Predict the structure.
Amino acid sequence: MTKEDILATADLAYLGLKEGEMEALMREVTQILEYFSIMERVDVSGLEATTHALLKQNRLREDSVLEVNISDDLLANAPELEDRFLVIPNVL
């Protein structure tokens, strides 16, 4: 990608580039374009076209009810309780 291409693209995107930024951007865009040329050479014949990256159906697990009550275990970790309520410092 040439310096003129970078300047034209930056102008279209309303980007103000400094000289050092332009040189770095030119190197990075050139590297990206080189990666694209490598991807163009990959043989994708026989692959089904993908129109969406996600699955068409949700993967769901079966719901199961667990008869577990861990509230007493959790409340045992509290520094201070009043009945079954956590005591916290006054905010006001």
Q: What stands out?
A: Residues 3-40 form one domain.
